Amino acid sequence: MQSTTLVKVACITSIMTGPRNSISDSGGGMYSEWASLSTLVQNGSEDSQSVLKKFHPVAGREVALSIVRQLATNLGITQAAEHSPLTTDREVQWCMEVICFGLSLPLAEHDTVRDCVNVYCEWLSALYSSPKISVPRPIVEDPNFYARKIISHFHNLFVPRKGEGADTINRQAVLCHRVLRTLQQVARGPATLERETWESLLLFLIGINDALLAPPAVREDAGEQLCERVLGVLLEVWLVACERNFPSPPLWRTLRESCLRWRHRLALVEQWNRVCLALTAKLLQVMYGPMFPELKISDEDAHLVPQTMSDEAVAQSWYRLLRTVGDPVDLCRPAVVSQTQAFLQYAIASQNVVDPCQHPCLQGLPQIFLKAIKGIAGQVDAFLGVSQACCWEECCITSVASASGGGGGVAGDKAGGKDQPQPSPTPPTQRRLAKSFSVTPSAVTKGIPKASLIGLTTSRISSNPPASTPNSGPSSTSSITSVTSLGQDIRPPLAPGRPKCNSILHLFGEWLFEAAFIGTDGWSQNLPQPSGASKRPSSVLVDGPSSLQETTSEIPPSLGIDRYESGRAEAMGALCRIFCAKKTGEEILPVYLARFYQAMYHGLKINETRECGETLASILLNSADLFRLDLDGVQVLVPAVISALEIVLPEKELKLKSNAVSRIELRRASIHLLISMLTLPLNLQNLPIKELPSLTAIINQEKNPVTFVQLKPRLMNLLINALQVESDPLNTHMLLGGLMLSVQDSAAAEEVEQVTQPDTITSDTTTNLLSSGCVPLRIHHCTIITCLIVASDSTSQVSISSDLRSLGDGSDIVTLQEENSAFGKYFDSAHALFVRATYLVCHRLISSWKTDLNISLAALELLAGLARTHIRETDALECKRAVKWLCDYITYQCWRPPPAHSKDLHSSIVAAFTCLTTWLSAHPQLLQDKDCLTTVLEVVELGVSGTKSIGKPGEPIKMKDEKELKPASMRVRDAADALLTIILEQVGYFPSACGAQSLSSLLDEVLLLRHCNSWTGGRVARQAAVERFRYFVAENATMLALLEEPLGNDQDPQPTVTVLIRGPFGRHAWTMQLRHLPRHKSSVRSMNTNPGRPLPLAEATPRPDYKPRFFPDNVDRIPHCRVDESIPSLDAVMNDNDTVKNEHHLLSQLLERQINLESKSSNDLARNADDKIEECTPPKICHEFQTARLFLSHFGFLNLDQNDNENSTTSGLTALDPSMPGFCTDLESLDHTSPRTCDTVHVFYVRAGQKSAEEILSNVLHETSVSPHFLEFLSSLGWPVSVSSHAGWTGHVSTSWRATIPVTVPQPAHSDHGGALYNGDTHILYWADVSSEVAFIVPTHLMGNMSSDSIDESNYNSDISGGQAWFERSVSESAGTRSYSVNQSGSQNSRTMSLDLDKQPPSLPGSGPSSTSSGDPIKPRRSTKHSLPMQTDTRILVVWLESLEDHLQFPIADLLSCTHTGLEHSNGVRPSDVQVIFLHSLSSGLMRVRLQGPVSRINLATPLVDGMVLSRRVLGTLVRQTALNMGRRRRLDNDSYHPPHVRRRLKVQDMVQKYRCNLSQPELLTFLFSSPQN
């Protein structure tokens, strides 16, 4: 049915329009061959004249008074109804002549006129099946005949009376309302009307409208009181007639010609908009069905179109009524509007009016023109499917304020109209609640509120308060609804089933193009274009000079063409929306494109004041997609658009002519245009841009054409300057993405071409810029930074220090104006852009963006992307400056006061640490710089401990053992830990010998055991291999697996131990030997295995015979004194004490026995002196060592000095029992927990029109089914790896992180595939850096639930059990003593180093409540009750579209089954949670990006931005970076997420809880001296 109806409408259009240029012909247009009834309408018919008119008015009055009063008494109004005494046709017709005369009486005879109205209204009940009893019998018998006479007589009531007061006019209005209401009821009711009756009714309604509305509007006249009502009834009854008795062509022509005479009435356009929108809403349902977006109109207007109207009648009525009011552009020409008989009569009769166009009522033409264009634009939006509920209000509601000011709109008018008294009496309940239009002579001086209008189309609702600007037209309402900084652009999407652009332009294009060209060169406001003349842009140029020579002195200054700027802006906005609604592959006629480009060229012109006018603002707001749609030749507009953007984007305080336009939304639309043009210079290079023809271009033909590459400096300066002054978060987000694209694209282009743009300035340029006549110099970073800050006439150098970037400094960089200098053209090389981007982003990150999480994340992502960008001239000093800035940013964020600390603040700090990791990994030479290394390590110390040893200036230096561990948060400490470990282990060494696929060693217990001498060959069971190792956990974080057997490739008999170290950051294998000599010396060995010894000397050594003396020889010669006798002799003592005597005796016996033994031995030795002496030989070499004990002892894990505590865990070493059930499984689970983040990106290819998952998956099976550019894109995402031999992330946990021996398996040839090789079965595309892994998979088949395949999923997800794990502390206890060693008793006050983990004692349940020691447990900050890898399962899809419209029907829900990674949770993934990157290839070779994702606090990641256009050379890089950043942002936003190294550490702690051996120190030593199980 849709197609049939659409064909009918198209046929109606072609038949009725005829030659397109005659539509606006006032001679009848499509009805030119039919007779017009306008003369009858203007002069009145004879049926409305009474015979009493031929008599004296007094006589006629007396007859009417007496007859009508008696007739009215029978109606039953004041008394009971009676049968009418009129029984014959002659009697009835005679009375009707009297009543006809009574309706024309002066309003002073109000009672008589009222009685006439009552009589006729009652008599019209004869048209119903049950007429009232007061109706005469002849009327009942022939109701249609008499109804036609009654309707014609009613014309006398509506004729305006001259000289009547306001009160009398109000009374007349009440009676007119009664008549109109009665006629409405007759038309809509069950009455049976003949065709002649319908035509009489319609002619009557046209006639009364012409009588009331054709004269120039005068304040407080009958036309002002009734215009809205009579027009509403006319159009409403007309629609009923279209349904019941379709009007004849003469009636349609008469209606059209009459409306042309009423165009000076605002109510006409409002009622026309109202009816047209109601018909459009009905027509959309007929043509496109219920799935098409509904046109929101009021409930009352929705009932204007009868529900029973046929589809054919709807289409016919809609098109005919649409063409009823003529060409809206004629409203811009007061001379045309006033060329009517009524205006000419008024001009002749009035002494104050020289020309009809000078009448005061024409001051409202700008507002009428705007309303008319709004109505047309509203219908355009309805066909595009973007209309909103405010549409009908904008077009159909009048307010009092609009009358007083000649402009204004809904918002301001409603407020202004409340205080004014309503001149008209209370209308009936059926009347619409709308105010009347009035014109005052002071309309010009009162001014027009410019921001009082709400946008007609889309959802353009301005949040700015209305303002008033004198002598200016009504405002253009082309702003877009303001959105929060955290959401995406909420412009309503276009309807997928919308008609083609050509179809809409066939209907509305001519009016919109004419409105868009008003005020341009060659357009005349004075006279209309001749009938039948061509309206192409070329005719504007040809006929322009003659038109310009016409005088415009007759036009009042208050109706100058600038007053119609708002309507022109609305028309340009509608045109932009039409052309931006182009579908993929849709063709637009060249004539339309040519006119559109010409209109855009004029609309984008900049005035002398560099003020953003309404037309320019409307163009920018509505053409965001202009350069993304493959419009033929649209590139000719690039210079004009750039010039317009240079007015809007670099200005912090933008000059706007209309305050109704939101500056934020205007800048956002301008940024959309900017990011869609950034790649054009490098893509089109030296292609010249042809200038559009114009009068000025014809004069200046000698000008050389501009090439695209010449526009690059302007685009880059525009981008940088816009970023400097931007304050809106979402706009800044988009600009950062565009800046990253520019740097990457320039670097990639220069790398491909191997040609870098010159960085040398001539001496003249240098002199002009730095005002110093120096020789040419090399532009390095200092010069560029200087020029960024210093004015062009300054010679000073700028030192960028930390003080200059003082924390909390809110000042921004001085806005650059390099486009005005010759130096600007050297700023577009990749190196220069790198320097400018780094400096600008770092500065604003410190000064302005630090408090906004989304901008901070986008800026940090940009800096990380800059670090990865390969630029040949990158200077180490520039990188050092960027690292210093990042460290300053972290320092400032950490030092903010406690109330400012929040989840968002800590997320920004974690992201900064990640960015710092990227910089140091990409530029390892930075750590060779002492200052840079000190700065980085200070920041790491700040992140781990919460303070710096060297604090702020003036603070004393804190030693590490004096500091309290109070990091900003656990997440910040974890990020600092990760950075420190990467600095120590990875910077400068990544990728390792294992490749980028693994940070860990690929050796495990099984592989090591195979290299031992004890291996007999064959398969080694993992359990058996594990039990050959000794397992210990040091400091509750690092697991040591010790193998005491030497490996088979080492024959040295040295003590050897092989250690597998499993820590938070991976698994590492080390073989250590205890050597007493250096390796180079110990390897030199003697060739003689038995060198022998020299013979001993047989001669006995002579022994001197001497008596040992204990005192000197002269001691006996010294004379004794009395003192010598003070010590008694031994004999004296023995004699005095028997005990001493006995002891002396025993000692004497022992001495005597020993003397005998010594003498015997001496004699034996002397006797055997001649025997041969036995030679000493070295012992046999020992091959058995307790190497585990030696290793633990030498490395300080065994401390034998602490004898007061028998617990072995005092030293921080815990032994594990590998023989316990489950140990081997948990160990394998630990090995399968990567120390890096892992993400999976699934790539799909969608051919045009595909909707089913099966069709989409089958596209990549063959190379011919996909674009060659798609295969090129896949190769740029990563490098292909084999799943069977890959040791990194493979996209699924069941095959990831497997240290398997590469097995050569014959793979089938996959030469003919469109990416299916990388479906994850045998190969994937892989990319990794030091902290992240990404797997790119191209699915080829749907899969069910993967629970049976992911055997390690439960182990991977359950990293802790029961909440019994040891927790970590990051704050000190309140007691003041800081005891941080594990299980310390409190008697010591030792302190761990910065990476040591603070654990709670295992005897946590037994700690007494009264204990106050520093070892008391504290409540941990990190909760471990959640599953650890909550946020690792981020679904990211990359979809290549042949047709952009297919993104609306992409079956995400159906394709989720083929995106399993083994990390799924019980609640599953909803389609709304999936992040999708849509890529659409344009005909120019560029790629358009569309992003789709869940709405959350955190924006979608950069560098890709929704709507960005980029080149293929950077497509893979930017898609990969965006996917990485998407995963990182989701992890940052998840409260329960743990970084990989924390997850591994908690897994180790969990294993300690399960498999620990509770050994005392002696038991531990005994365990070390024993051999492991064999």
Could you characterize the architecture of this molecule?
- With 1574 residues, the chain is mainly alpha-helical.
- 42% of the residues lie in helices and 6% in strands.
- Helix 4 crosses helix 5 (110-123), helix 25 (565-579) packs across helix 26 (590-603) and helix 37 packs parallel to helix 39 (903-922).
- It is elongated and about 190 Å long.
- It starts with a helix and ends in a 5-residue tail after the last helix.
- The relative contact order is 0.05.
- Residues 1-27, 399-488, 529-553, 756-825, 1203-1210 and 1345-1431 have low confidence and may be disordered.
Would you kindly provide a brief summary of this structure?
The chain is mainly α and 1574 residues long. It is 42% helix and 6% strand.
Number of helices: 55
Helix and strand composition category: mainly alpha
Strand content: 5-15%
> How far is the first residue's CA from the last residue's CA?
85 Å
The stretches of 5 or more residues where confidence is low (pLDDT under 50) are 1-27, 399-488, 529-553, 756-825, 1203-1210, 1345-1431
**What is the typical, i.e. mean, pLDDT?**
74
The level of helicity is: 40-55%
The main pleated sheet reads as: 8 strands, mixed
Task: Give the spatial strand order of the biggest sheet.
Answer: 11-12-13-10-14-15-16-17
- Strand element count: 18
Question: Mind telling me the C-alpha Rg?
Answer: 49 Å
Q: So what's the overall shape?
A: elongated
